[in-house]
Amino acid sequence: MEYRTIIRITGILVTLFSTTMLPPAIIAAIYNDGGGTAFIEAFGLSCLIGGLLWYPNRRAKEELRTREGFLIVVMFWTVLGSIGAIPFILSEMPDLSFTDAMFESFSALTTTGATVITGLEHLPKAILFYRHLLQWLGGMGIIVLAVAVLPMLGVGGMQLYRCETPGPVKDNKMTPRIAETAKALWYIYLTLTVVCATAYYFAGMNLFDAVGHAFSTIAIGGFSSYDASMGHFDSPLINAICVVFLLISSINFALHFTAFNKQGVWLKAYWHDAEVRTFIAFQLALVAIVFVILLTQSSGESTEVVLDKALFQAVSMSTTAGFTTDNFAGWPLFLPMLLVFSSFIGGCAGSTGGGIKVVRIALLFLQGVRELKRLVHPRAMFSIRLNNKAVNDRIIDAVWGFFAAYAMVFVLIMTALMGTGLDSISSFTATAASLNNLGPGLGDVAAHYGTVNDPAKWILILGMLFGRLEIFTLLVLFTPTFWRN
């Protein structure tokens, strides 16, 4: 294991990440409402830590193998999540403990969107902007990780599109070099952010809120500058804009790249993709169920208001954004639990959405259908097809392996949370919210996580990392084989 090379790379990452402390400091100077000093101090401290990691190992430039790749990816999220907590620790407002600061930072960077802070509208603009910025950077990191890095390590959602599985438009090698791939992804990500912010602004948000909420929307993070989240604006137009961009951001960014390079036929690129069709069909079905039940159970609300609530909350929860316009935890019948369960599916592979991913759920369903056919015709040969191409059984094995690991981690985290004193509903939904990078849950975690005990928060931080790193990337570090020479 080339530890010195790994430490050198980590030092470079920390130094680069320290520059994220400067924009909030500028925001503090513009609005003059405090908070700037904490970011200047955090910038200096982060640069110092990065320099101390890099300088002694600056000449360590050994070629990295797959094992080092796994460790670098995990350290990328854990180290930067820890460094990201420094401004929260140093800031006087909000006055967060070390545990709360770490929770807020990891929740932002993994785009989970769970928060321990209340009274958001009274915080300095610098803190609010920093929370949005962390989610935006985390979302971009997720895209590069899923599309450009994890395929090289043989894990992650994009592994499903290797070899003959991808279909006509998906390819993990969008451009020949990883640097060019990352550049192309940044271009798409930034363009969507600018368009989303512009739409928010013309829909009635001020410039600060438009930019901040665009960051959280494209990253599918769910952080807001207000305790009432998107409900603060009370605008069906803003809600509709949010829904549109959540759906766009939930689609594979490699597919966006391919579609925008197909002049004149770009819509066909989406329509011909089985995962996108499944994703849209699921969204329509979920919205219809929520709308019908709310309409039959509502007390005097107009059809338009009910449709707005159903559409926004169904899409927000199922894409794992976690924005809210209403107290969905108080909705009738089984709707609150249905919305939490919808987050297990999440977005498409290679998107900023969390969850198990649509393509995995689709392949699990197709495998179940194949087993039923085999019971009826034991000697027949049945193949699983996606995008009119046969799926290699190795891919199906990988999907089943992921699902088994996901279930195991889910049970362990939920049991550990119950061991800290959380009730069963809070433990179950908090586990789902962390592993699926959703944010809000039910019970004690419906509004925020401020009342959750410290041991539970650390367990949930681990859950966020497991969910964001596609389970296997983090789980492999716990195997003895990984550490053997």
From TrEMBL:
Q: Which UniProt keywords apply?
A: Cell inner membrane, Cell membrane, Ion transport, Membrane, Metal-binding, Potassium, Potassium transport, Transmembrane, Transmembrane helix, Transport
Please indicate which superkingdom the organism of origin belongs to: Bacteria
Entry's localization field = Cell inner membrane
This chain's protein is named: Trk system potassium uptake protein
| Family membership | Belongs to the TrkH potassium transport family.
Q: Which GO terms describe its molecular function?
A: metal ion binding; potassium:chloride symporter activity
> What's a single GO CC term here?
plasma membrane
Q: Answer whether the UniProt record assigns the keyword Transport to this protein.
A: yes
**Transmembrane annotation, as ranges:** 12-31, 37-57, 69-90, 133-153, 184-203, 237-255, 276-295, 333-366, 395-418, 458-483
Chief subcellular location equals: membrane
Q: What does this protein do?
A: Low-affinity potassium transport system. Interacts with Trk system potassium uptake protein TrkA.
Positions of K(+) binding? 111-112, 220-221, 320-321, 437-438
Membrane topology reported for the UniProt record: Multi-pass membrane protein
